[in-house]
Amino acid sequence: MEANHEINLTNLDPEHLRAFEDVIGVPLHRNQRLVIQVTDSPRPAQSLSDWKKVYDELTEEQIESIDRDLNTRANLTRHLP
């Protein structure tokens, strides 16, 4: 099922307008229309080798920085009951 949904932003309350802005990552203006396309297109298959390519363009310093951030976040939940 494919469908387009047009949303007239003048009809949205501020809370819903902010929610759409958070989703798309840009500010919206009341004189705009938001068009959302829903498709049945399947996601491309992903393999382990595809995921390994995530680090291909990064320097060692960038990889170490990511690793430090991940380890810090992992430590935040270790002492929860």
Structural key phrases:
2 strands, alpha+beta, two-stranded antiparallel sheet, 40% helix
Provide a descriptive summary of the structure in words.
This protein is an alpha+beta fold and 81 residues long. It has a domain at 3-38. It contains 3 helices and 2 strands. It has helices at 14-24, 48-52, 60-75, and strands spanning 3-8, 33-38. Strands 1-2 form a two-stranded antiparallel sheet. It starts with a strand and ends in a 6-residue tail after the last helix. The mean pLDDT is 85.
Précis, in short:
By secondary structure, this protein is an alpha+beta fold. The chain has helices at residues 14-24, 48-52, 60-75, and strands spanning 3-8, 33-38.
**Beta-strand content estimate:** 5-15%
Largest sheet: 2 strands, antiparallel
Strand order of the largest sheet: 1-2
By helix and strand content, what is the structural category? alpha+beta
Could you tell me the number of beta strands?
A: 2
Helical amount among residues, as a percent range? Answer: 25-40%
Ranges where pLDDT stays below 50 over 5 or more residues in a row are none
Shape: extended
User: Averaging pLDDT over every residue, what do you get?
Assistant: 85
Number of helices: 3
For the record, give the distance between the C-alpha atoms at the N and C termini, rounded to a whole number.
Answer: 45 Å
N to C succession of SSEs: EHEHH
Whole-angstrom Rg:
20 Å
Write the layout of secondary structure elements.
Layout: E1 3-8, H1 14-24, E2 33-38, H2 48-52, H3 60-75
Antiparallel strand pairs: 1-2
